Amino acid sequence: MDNGVEISTKTVYDEQNATISSSSSSSSLKKKSRLPQVTITGGVFDLFALAVALVLDQEEDKEEDVNVAILGLGAGTCARLIDDLYHSSNKRVKMFGYELDDAIVDLGMKHFGLNELKEKGSLVDVRVGDALENIKTKKSDADDTVKFDLIIVDLFDDQSRVIPQLMEVERWENISKRLKNPPSSSSSSSNENVSRVICNLSTGRGRGANINNAVHVAELIAETCGNGDVSIWPSSKMNVWNECCISGPKPSFGVDTTPKVLATYCPHWISTSKYVKNKNSSSNETDEDGDDKDDDDDDIPMNGWLLDRLQGR
After folding, report:
1. What mean pLDDT, rounded, does the chain reach?
2. Which domains, from first to last, does the chain contain?
3. Would you tell me how many other CB atoms lie within 10 Å of the CB of residue 216?
4. How far is CA 220 from CA 7, 44, 54, 203, 303, in A?
5. What is the pLDDT of residues 263-279, one digit of tens each?
6. pTM score, two decimals?
């Protein structure tokens, strides 16, 4: 379209006015989101909240809850933002928190609204301890039978680096087992009914941050949770100084589920599907999305391609 960046066949992001609008063959009429306008954080928590829109089913007649796990709950900034943005959606978002530090959870309960989220049922449970251990499926624990539509992974060390555990494939295999509908070969090109993982790879500007480790984690997520696909958020886009990735097919944000206040974040995700298409394309000018094809991609391995994109090249 002339004045927007295409998000999906049904929606378009208007760069000038920062809204999401409905598009059709005859006209493009702006459609207001049903979701509330709230103050966003201007950081990585906004990306986490945006990912919820990907797993919200737009079919009104389905009443199944949307389960969201937050690995690295902290004092609850992410949980509160999600509840503020989606509490009036047609599907109920139920959150499950995992946090290492019980003192932080206690702080969140007393002073930052976690207790209110629990009382209203938005925050179903908080498990204190090693999140990567607690996310494992254990037959002896009924809570571990819960499957998640979205798993948010926000685990880092005191220097904002990828923690060593996230570089182990077994950890991501454990996480993938908790996804309700992990991507498969039959759903690799479709966003329908696909569960997602979104991970904070690092700040990219943190002391001692290692971008190569971030790339390795993105590859593991694609392999274990995304059927080979992952979409990345390059550091510095929209002044969000984090590298992040979402598992599965290229994100397509629907007008009915995406909060208008998050619209500006929608078009900046870069999918590895673009890399694969460019590798397989017979055309040297454009790929099937109509984007300019980068001839240099033919000689770059996947990890090198991810490295370039994560650094905004």
Report:
1. 78
2. 32-261+301-310 (3.40.50.150)
3. 17
4. 26, 21, 21, 19, 11
5. 999 998 998 876 665 55
6. 0.81
